[in-house]
Amino acid sequence: MEKKYATRKFIRNSANEVPHSAKSKFEHSSDKEVWKAFCEEDELAFIYIYTQYFQTLLRYGWQFTHDRELVLDCIQDLFIYLRSKRSRLGELKSRIDVYLMASFRRRILDYKK
Fold it and tell me: What does the pLDDT look like over 23-76, one tens digit per residue?
């Protein structure tokens, strides 16, 4: 039986344009600084991370499946999870993109099972 998944309404910024306020606040910050702000519930940090890495995750997802809706749903699920757990997330050990891609890969592979 084919696994069904729902497309939820969520901001999907395919243009990957970071809002000016988020970009100006974080464009010269290290990944650790951005992640710390995100974990401290800075909404601009969340927006910055989402818009900065959306296209990267979209392209990365194509390596696992060409089902665009599945890839978009997994990106959305990842960011919903991160947002809901951000106060409990630990310190960033490497780069944000490495963390996101590892988490995203696990999520996509779980969906494909």
Answer: 778 888 999 999 999 999 999 999 999 999 999 999 999 999 999 999 999 999
What is the identity of the amino acid at 72? L
Q: In the chain, where are the structural domains located? A: 29-112
Residues 6+ apart with CB under 8 A from 45: 22, 26, 34, 35, 37, 38
- Rounding to the nearest 10 degrees, give the CA dihedral for residues 67, 69, 74, 76: 160
DSSP string, 96-112: HHHHHHHHHHHHHHHHH
Q: Give the C-alpha distances (Å, rounded to integers) separating 95 from 3, 10, 109, 112.
A: 32, 25, 22, 26
What architecture is the 29-112 domain classified under in CATH?
Orthogonal Bundle (1.10)
